[in-house]
Amino acid sequence: MEQQKKYWNKIENACCQLITCITALIRLVSKYVIGTYMHHIEYRPDAQPKTCKTLADIPGPRSLPIFGTRWIYWKFCLYKLNAVHLAYKDMFIRYGNIIREEALWNIPIISVKDRDFIERVLRHSGKYPIRPPNEVTANYRKSRPDRYTNTGLVNEQGEVWAKLRNKLTPELTSPRTIRRFLPEVNQLADDFNTLIGLARDGNNVVKGFESYCNRMGLESTCTLILGKRFGFLDGEVSDTATRLADSVTSQFRASQEAFYGLPLWKLFPTRAYKDFVASEDALYDIVSEIVDSALIDEQLSCTDVRSVFVSILQAPGLDNRDKKAAIIDYIAAGIKTLGNTLVFLLYLVAKHPDVQEKIYNEVLRLAPAGTAITAEHLHNATYLHACITEAHRYKHPALLTAISYFPENTYQFIVFSCPTFIYIYRLLPTAPCIARVLESDFEYENYQLPTGVILY
Fold it and tell me: What are the names of the required cofactors (predicted)?
């Protein structure tokens, strides 16, 4: 027994020595290899292997089963549906540059505000970018085949979207169209300035300035798309113009409630869905009156102001229903974007009197009083261009939240008589809700964003 014990002790000692020799050999080889390798690269003793975080690690509001994070907009909860811009402003302060929310059934939705990253995502989109559709609009249009052949340019995907885009947008996006539209924009700007001048009180304060900007958005968008003035900038607005304005406002509100609220409209027609249907029907009826009148006109001519309208009506290979739907989409998309842009940019200019003075002097030098504004004037207004670019860079994520920076809904601006101001803003519309479904994996701030994630 004693001999057996000695035998196992010898084996144990031998094993220990063998392990010690192997360990020493490994250390020696490692030291040699690493030492040789470090002659060619910089050695960083604090370097650590990079590990990417997952979607689950992205900060955001607490998620509930099934309901996701939609509870934050419920009554008596954190945020309000009529102030979504304030909700995102607060969440970006709370959670940082990237936020994770969850839609119903806990589908993750990621929001970012980094312009460079957003640009990278947009540039890496495929031939047919995948955009989350507006479900309430798509659902309604599918239920009305008598009026719509598809869900429209904004909501369609793939080849159908590409066909609509190629046939309906060339004239609208052409620089030639903008140049031809310039004289009408000059008149629009003069009318807007006159309207603001009449709205000022004795202290140069304009109350409810946003509503006047929205009227400018309505008038300019309708003039560009429909080829005629509607009188939104006049003292008294016509009945048709009032119906159009009310329909657009109602459509936006109903879409917001349907988008952020519980989708009970999928089960039964909720109030929001009924309001949306009513506004969509009214828009369709108004546009139909204008389109049908133009189609009956045998002497339809493509004047400078009507070029976009005529190009849509004469687009080959499209049903008239597609053309009417495109006009409705263009009007709805253009009105609020221009209104928000005017509010935001004019606010920043008004907050910096020195910048305001430089802009005014540049414009006065290029186009003295009484001089018609031309494309060349706009091209040479370098300081004005720089200010607009800087304004978008400085607070671009706040484009949607412009209204929150005005205390008590009161605004004060110096009224310019130069129409250049308005024309430049028309070239830079606000797009507060750009979304993509990622078509490939992305990494942002050490977070791994997989294919198929919805990114706002």
Answer: heme
Contact 129, 123 (CB under 8 A): no
d(CA 265, CA 258): 8
Q: Are 154 and 333 in contact (CB under 8 A)?
A: yes
Q: Do 4 and 65 belong together in one domain?
A: no
Whole-angstrom Cα distance, residue 68 to residue 62? Answer: 8
- Tens-place pLDDT, residues 288-312: 877 776 666 545 555 566 667 778 8
Nearest-angstrom CA–CA distance, 244 and 219? 11
Q: What is the DSSP string of 331-384?
A: HHHHHHHHHHHHHHHHHHHHH-HHHHHHHHHHHHHHS-TTPPP-HHHHHH-HHH
- Cα 309 from Cα 172, distance rounded (Å): 9
Name the residue range of residue 446's domain: 55-130+442-455
**198-233 pLDDT tens trace:** 888 888 888 888 888 888 888 888 888 877 788 888
CA distances from 416 to 208, 298, 361, 413 (A): 18, 42, 11, 9
Both 81 and 30 in one domain: the answer is: no
Query: What total of structural domains would you count in the chain?
Result: 3
φ/ψ of residue 84, rounded to 5: -65, -35
Nearest alpha carbon to residue 177 among 294, 303, 287, 328? 303
The owner of tokens 């020195």 is 354
Domain match, 375 and 275 both: yes
Same domain, 244 and 269: yes
Helix (H) or strand (E) holding 410: strand 410-412
Residue with tokens 């409209």: 265
- Domain containing 306 — which CATH number? 1.10.630.10
332 and 192 within one domain: yes
CA distance 170 to 86: 36
Say how far apart CA 411 and CA 344 lie, in whole Å: 11
Which helix or strand (DSSP H or E) is residue 412 part of? Answer: strand 410-412
Report the distance separating Cα 268 and Cα 245, nearest Å: 28
